[in-house]
Inverse folding.
């Protein structure tokens, strides 16, 4: 009986802990032009602490991402993408970083 009570208490604690995480979803327009861009954009977004999923649509240039609102913000994701060489609707990539992208990834033509 005591074991059952302890297991129940542990389950309640785990449920309460996971309920504290504020999962949110957002999207950003991110410039890019090819499959290499897709990999870079998704990898960069996913590397931001708190981002749990990121998918970029090459046709619509839209990045949809899930994140923990207690750990990051859409602005932080946008800044990380700009640092990787991709303009977003909120931040512009540095020209030097942009020009270092492979030719097929240079979308400002």
């Amino acid at each position: 009986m005591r074991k059952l009570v302890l297991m129940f208490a542990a389950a309640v604690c785990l449920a309460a802990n996971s309920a504290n995480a504020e999962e949110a979803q957002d999207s950003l327009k991110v410039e890019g032009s090819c499959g290499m861009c897709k990999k870079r954009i998704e990898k960069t977004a996913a590397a931001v602490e708190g981002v749990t999923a990121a998918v970029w649509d090459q046709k619509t240039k839209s990045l949809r991402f899930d994140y923990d609102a207690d750990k990051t913000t859409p602005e932080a994701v946008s800044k990380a993408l700009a640092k990787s060489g991709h303009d977003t609707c909120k931040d512009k990539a540095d020209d030097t970083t942009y020009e270092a992208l492979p030719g097929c990834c240079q979308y400002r033509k």
